[in-house]
Amino acid sequence: MSDTTPTAARELSAQYQPAEVEQRLYEGWVAAGVFAADPASDKPPFAIVIPPPNVTGSLHIGHALDHTIQDSLIRRRRMQGYEALWLPGMDHAGIATQNVVERQLAASGQSRHDLGREEFVERVWQWKAESGGKILGQMRRLGDSVDWDRERFTMDEGLSRAVLTIFKRLFDDGLIYRAERIINWCVRCHTALSDIEVEHSDDDGELVSIRYGEGDRSIVVATTRAETMLGDTAVAVHPDDERYKHLVGTLVELPLTGRSIPIVADPHVDPAFGTGAVKVTPAHDPNDFEIGQRHSLPSLTIMDETGIITVHGPFEGLDRFEARPAVVAALRAEGRIVAEKRPYVHAVGHCSRCGTTVEPRLSLQWFVKTAPLARAAGDAVRDGRTRIEPPELAKRYFAWVDNMHDWCISRQLWWGHRIPVWYGPAGEVRCVGPDEEPPGEGWTQDNDVLDTWFSSALWPFSTLGWPADTPSLAKFYPTSVLVTGYDILFFWVARMMMFGLYAMEGRQPFDVVALHGMVRDQYGKKMSKSFGNVVDPLDWIERFGADATRFTLARGANPGADVPVSEEWCQGSRNFCNKLWNATRFALINGATVEGDLPSAAELSTVDRWILSRLADVTETVDRHFEAFELAKVCDVLYHFAWDDVCDWYVELAKPVLTGEDAAAAGRTRRVLGHVLDALLRLLHPVVPFVTEELRTALVPGGGSIVTAAWPAASPEARDTAAEAEVAGLQRVVTEVRRFRADQGLRPGQRVAARIDGLEGAGLSAHSVLIRSLARLDEPGDGFAATGTVAVGGGVEVALDTRGSIDVAAERARLTKDRAAAEKEIAQCRAKLDNPAFTEKAPAPVVGKIKERLAAAEADLARVSAQLAALAG
RNA sequence: GGGCGCGUAGCUCAGUGGGAGAGCACUCGCCUUACAAGCGAGGGGUCGCAGGUUCGAAACCUGCCGCGCCCA
After folding, report:
1. What is the ipTM of this complex?
2. On chain B, which bases lie within 7 A of the protein's CB atoms?
3. Residues A289 and A401 in one domain
């Protein structure tokens, strides 16, 4: 095992070096088993199943975002005392994986058919063992606190059993059927695709208008796919279209083919589009197929599985894209082209795996009848069993599940779950369940496999052991949250909902669906290889650390919204981690400790009570944002608390106490500092696990891993508004003096003699030493002579001896600006208060607040005016 | 064409009825011994446009303009 020596035993270097600690810590966590979830535990469950990445995939920035959110949620719940399960795994990615192995074979001049089905599948398993699942190692780099003992794969034995089980149930319930339908066909992958595996884009094409028939019995149709006219079996018009009423029921000659086809009336034709007449190719267009069904038209397939035309002499053997211009040329030669429009931009479907233009194709496929399943999936969200976050996105979910088409689940591949249906010698069809013997002699199994998403849809329960009644299933189902991108909502999520509700007797697969957006670049542009703006998360992890990478993503993770990132911002996150590192280093050098109880409020200084009050406020706010999946806000609050409150103010205010003569006071502040840092590190741990573990190990010797440390409890009793107000006053004095010094061009380090008046009246008399420390002011000595005065409000005045002439022009400019601001404020407040409608109708607290603002602004004006007058004199 | 969403500082984004904010970028001054991966100070916005509701609108309503996403 690697070196797990606590950092306390070493020196903290001046800079945080993530590369030196991340691997050691991660291996330590896994070895200690802190990520393991125990179904026998009596702690309340909290479970997340990971959206399974492809076995062919590697970690991209989108995964990094998705995982950062999940890990943050899981790590917090684990610290809160839940039995937290984050279950990892991969899917078998039927088409993608088969493509990878087929490419390997092609390199040696082979095809899968040379090997045969059994040997090919064996080869795919071999590929998986050797080079599949790269992403799992990369997830360790990111710090994912998944339970590795539970890693699952959609093709493993248990999950395959789940697939067979649910297939059989659906089949027996009549929810799976086989039919000849128009499906999306990829002519390169040689398989059917479901609707969601087709991506539409607006492409340049052509719109060609063709005249069918002759003379007053002719009719003009327009098409973007001229070659399909070879398969036309009708022309359709709207029944109410007066232009064509006389033609309905007649035959028209289809050019080039010598065939005559009927003109039919169908209400689905849009009479306003084009000529109002459409060609009907039932075998090559889904809408045309439906028209064909309604009018009992024949379906004529004109292409083979590779997109090659199979009919009509001169075109036979041409690819569909070669046939298109050839058909147009032939029609033009016959004088049948009425109009041509190029380019004509229209939506074209592409295979989401290989980008090839999808060909609608009539073929015999297996389908899931989705109507009843989708209804249940919608109802589970409608009645609140599952909550979608952010709620606005539920509308999209409903739009999808309430209009879902039947799902084509058969794929003409070898890699995947083979459809458990056997065909008998007399045409019998039998679905074989997981524990049944296949039928014997003379029967053959369906050649196709199931869509990968069919097995992914079972993920939330198949991974927990279903169909067996396992302790894990009992403990962790329904899972608590599903975290994924909104782009996945309408297919994968909807399908898990359908199958989960069906398999688990109406119990939803997850209580909450927390959606995030896509990672974009710093200008809000989509990342794309061609644009060259793709970020590799592993590159960032190496250069800035896993924590910085995670923090950058988490800080942009507003629910449902896209997440812009940039290298500069990741540097900023790295800097933040380094800031934590150095704050802890300072604390350790100065003896900060978490040992012993915190002194009571009565014993503590105002400043100590202030930072504890801020901590209480921050803890409560962080909890609230976590509950709402507002990770960006969690990060924002902690960033500012750590940097502004703790580092910029508390540490600076603690310095004079820690090095001062009052040993008891120093001891109390050491405890407060240790306590605050410890809580801060624990609050940050879910987002930045590595640096917080390393630092807390140093800060809390023998305290065990932060992974299993308790989540900081909200402590409303620590809120102290009086202390907060007092420190705000102190900060105002310090800031005003610093501003004066900067205006006067005094170097920050230069100490200046000064007399401070009016602290008592402002309730700040206890803080004179701190103010002098932070504003770098010395006590006035012999021969003190004030050369400049800063009136900071609240009656406090600081007279400084700058040992030289002050920059009157700079000071006048500053004061003039302040005077203008005060005058503007006064005018705005007076306008409101002089308006009787306001004073009568606005709530009393609002009116009171405006009066206070007016009084403060008037005091400011008086102060500034007096200083200006003094300057002039 | 239908649906959803967005438009706030140079960039990216918070802010959903009562003093316009953050990060980064920018300007000035600093190696002030935890941190230059830093410290201090500062500049910068007709809140897309036009109406309306209201004592009061960046926020609510209507219309328009521009952009994005999903579906057809």
Report:
1. 0.95
2. 3-5, 11-14, 18-19, 22-25, 28-32, 34-43, 54-56, 69-72
3. no
